[in-house]
Structures are given as C-alpha cells and as structure tokens.
Input
Amino acid sequence: MAKIKLENVSFLYGKGTSYCKEALKNVNIEIKEGSITGLIGHTGSGKSTMLQLLNGLAKPAEGKVYLDGEDIWEKPKEIGKVRFRVGLVMQYPEYQLFEETVEKDIAFGPKNMGLSESEISERIREAIDFVGLSPDVLSKNPFDLSGGQKRRVAIAGVIAMRPEVLVLDEPAAGLDPQGRDIILGGVFKYREKTGATVIIVSHSMEDMARLCDNIIVLSHGEVVLNGTRDEVFAQSQMLEKIGLAVPQITLLMHELNARGIIVDNGIYTEEAAAAEIARLFGGAR
Amino acid sequence: MRSIALGQYYSVDSPIHRLDPRVKIVLAILYIVIVFLSANMLSMALILGSAFLLVALAHIPVKLVMKSVKPIVFIIAFTAIINIFWTSGEGDPLLDIGFAQIYKEGIVNAVFLMIRIFVLIIGSSILLTYTTTPISLTDGIERLLGPLKKIGLPVHDFAMIMTIALRFIPTLMEEADKIMSAQKARGADFTNGSLIQRAKALIPILIPLFSSSIRHALDLATAMECRCYRGGEGRTRMKILKCGTADIVAVISIVAFGAAVICLNVFFA
Output
C-alpha cells in the first residue's frame, strides 16, 4: 500500500485576494513505503508547497492527502500527530535553531511529543550519529557552529522524532561537496536502519540519480513526469523542455547514442559510464 | 500571514499618483486643517463631496476605500454616541431618559464629527498611502525636513532608517512565516494552552527572527559600504523630485477649497 497518497490535490495562495495563485493543480501521486522519492522542478513549480501538504502545514484547497490510507485532515485537531509521523526539514533549516545548546535544540521535537527524558537523550545521541556529528557538540551553543554543522543539527532535530516519513527540502543547498555527502549519506543511513520513507527535493540531478528510487517532476504546479529513476531520466528531451536537465553523464550517453555509438542510455554515475565505455572498447578490439 | 496588506499603495496611473510626494504631504496637512475648519451643513456637504472627488481622481476602487474605513467604523460610532449624550444645547431636550438628555445640537454635532473623521481618513489615505509608495513618501519627508539640517538634525539618516525599515517588513514577515512553519513541523503549538504557555511558545520564533534580523542588518551594512555609502553628504538622486504644472494646479485647488469652506462658514453661519 502507498505510504502517502495525494488525490486530486490543488492548492491556492492568497485565496480571495487579487494575488490569488494556483500553486498546485490536480496532483495525483502515490509514494511507496520505504522508497526514496526525489522531487524536482524549477523555482516556483510548487515543490515546497507540496512538501507542506504532506505533513499538514498547508491544507489542500481541494483533494485529499492520505497517510497509511487515512485522510490526514479527517480530524483537524490531531494534525499535530501527523507532523510527528511526517518529519519535514525545511529549506535552510539552520535558521530555525533557537536553544542555548545543541542538545536542547534537538530535544525540542521529541519533548513536544511528550517522550520521557531517557528516551529523548537516547534519540538525541542516535540522531547526531546519523548526521555525522560527535557527541561533544551537544553542549555547545548552536550559534557557535559552522553553517554546515548548524544544518546537520537542524536535520538531527527532525530525525530525533523518528518520523516514518522524512521529507527534506533541498537539504544540501549551499554546502560544500563533503557537507553534502555527509547529509545525504545520513539520510540514506536513516532509511536503511528504520525503513522510513524518504522524500527529497534537490536541484542536483547527480544527487537525485545516486539516491532516489523514484522521481516526480513538477512544472507550474502540475506533475509532468512520475516514475522510476530510469523512466524519468529516459525523458531527457521532456526534462530539457521544462528547463531541467538529466545528469551530465547521462546526457553524454544520450549524445553518444545520437551520434551512432550505441551505449546504454540508462546510466547515471561516472563508474557505470566508465564501465560502459570500457565495454565498448573491449568489443571493438 | 500572507494576507496582511503591506502598506496600502495601490498601483495605477492617476493625476494624484503623479503628484510630487512633497506636494502631497503638504496637501494632506492642509486638507486635514480644512476638514476641521468646516462648521455648518453646507461646508460639511462640500468636504464630503471633496472626499468622493479625491477617490474618483485617484482611480481607487470605492470597495477598497470602504474596506480601509471598516476597522474604524467602531471608533467613529463610539465617539458619535458619546457626543450625542455629552452635548447640551438651548431649549428643551429631544429625549429625556433621566440620567441623560439628548439635544438637537448633540445629534448635529455627532453627525458632523462622523463626517469629519470619515473624510479625514479617506482624504489622507487617498493623498498619501494609496497613491504614494512608501519609498517616495520618505523621500518627500526627507526633502520637506531638509531645512532642519541647518540646525544639525540628521534628516537624511532618519529617512534612510525609515526606508530600510519599510523595505524589511515584507522580508521579516516572510521569515517569521517560515520559522513558524519549521517549528510547527517539530510539534510547536501556538494556539493552545494558557497565556503564559503561549507566550513561551513564541520564544522558538523570536530568537531565530532576532538573529536573522541582525544577520540582515550586518549584511546590508557591508553591502552598502561596498557601494561606498557615506551618508547623505553630496549624495545625488536617481529620481529627482520636480514640481510641475499639475502640482501647482493641486496647490491652487486646495487653497480655493479652503477659501470656499471658510466663506460657507462665514456667510451661512
């Protein structure tokens, strides 16, 4: 069964004013339990809005959002519980840190869940381990950390709630390659260990290709492509038409094919491409 | 949060929009004085008519103007009622209910007051907030207060502070909105609990908001320094304010309007 299902979902900004804008139009998607789904689309395509619909921060103007087959808005008073089950890491989450120590900040979510002290401290330790921080940062002031470390603390703050669905809005934006690898690696580890469903927004097609099982492409508030990674990246012309790209290495493979050198089109990593080209030379010899 | 209107500037092209902001500030002050000068039926009718004329000249939808009057309807009604009971006149009261008497003068006073406040709000918002962007408004204020520089008041700095504050209202609102969403996603609850609990629930919003305002201020200071900002000394302007024929016509009209109100007061007392 689908972990999350959006059915005919539409969302409007500024309803009833002259600035009214339809951010999402009739969206239908299903997200499989335990999968990693990538959400791509250019700025203003409705990605962030869609993420806020998943945990009930935004309420759809029309349509239903299902979590484990239950409509999340059936009991509006209990929407808080949905937010603990669907953990959302917003864009640039480092700007939401507020406590005196890293430990207290990560504890904010679990405390709101009403967990016991011992449970909370166990979860904090587990969470910072996922994001690759050492336990001695716990007593530090979050405002003394570097940008990348702050980002990891903020992500740990959501992971500490042990959400069944982890939703991340551009978690690696503005980080150096090492910081990006630590965060994306941590997310992958969290999925492996807990079996959680992950939904991730990114502008890096390379990251998407490496990480995701499924990919959803949004353009002007509509789902234009929705399928497995292979299916979506096979549509390179469609992606380019809406101003997105396939990973560079995949583009190279497509170009080679267009020039009559027959290689596998479904290649997303440098390693696979190197192997494919080596095979080509091996065959030619 | 998104629905809060920021300033009321209504972007259309109209004779009033095109007026010089300095002239508009002066006109608004004169208009307010004239509104309070009016004292009888005829001059009241004249200022009421002038308010409608202003709305029409500024091409602002009547619906929008009414919406901005709505929040003060209660205050207008309250002052009117107080006036009805507190004014005593000559002759017999129209109504005597023991502890309070209502006189004819009371009702007339209340109606006049209602018209005055109503016209005051419409007139000043049409002349200023609806038709002038906040930036050109501060620009106008800076130029009008220019002479005070001679006695050592840092007029330019005040104007710059105002401009920057106005510029950052939408930015900070957007930021507050984001931080609120982020804390809600971690289970923060701003709507339930006792007053103290709710006040405490604001801490996770206020601290990040303060820290980001300070960050913005430092970034902006650096950016301004990089572009060689050194205060108002010797600074030229991109938009040079110029008084044209329309501005002169506007000033003449308001003077004529004021004269008309005074004449009506004197000759039809």
In short: Residues 15-146+243-267 of chain B form one domain.
